[in-house]
């Protein structure tokens, strides 16, 4: 069951790297088109400095990549705890649901980005993560 429990985390890691590449392959051409040159970038410049400079649709990939560096940081140790302490098939299924929802959320945010769809996807993923968090607490606090 350990591998089945850890597989969703591995897939979400891979997906995060895909989003990083998608962001780079859209951002760098947009920067070039707008006349920006990384060689002349101000010291300490950050991606946030590109808000309002690059088209919103280009920035959506960056926003999503940042999101993948936020909430999933709770997912990874949660899945690890469950895997180490004896997760069930239901736990693995919920982990896959979380990852699936995050991937759908990413694609939606990076392409269409209407909040009326994006927010429910986030809420459903958060509910799955909350279930996993309760399972991790239960396994650690009430282990026999």
Question: Mind sketching the topology for me?
Answer:
Blueprint: H1 2-33, H2 56-68, H3 72-85, H4 89-111, H5 115-141
Helix pairs in contact: 1-2, 1-3, 1-4, 2-4, 3-5, 4-5
Q: What key phrases describe this protein's structure?
A:
76% helix, elongated, 144 residues
The largest sheet, given as strand count, sense and whether it forms a barrel, is: none
Total of DSSP H or I helical runs spanning 4+ residues? 5
Whole-number radius of gyration? 18 Å
Point out poorly predicted stretches: none
| Strand count | 0
Structure description:
The protein is mostly helical. It is built from five helices and no strands. The protein has helices spanning 2-33, 56-68, 72-85, 89-111, 115-141. Helix 2 (56-68) packs antiparallel against helix 4.
Question: What is shown here, in short?
Answer:
The chain has 144 residues and is an all-alpha fold. 76% of the residues lie in helices and 0% in strands. It starts with a helix and ends with a helix.
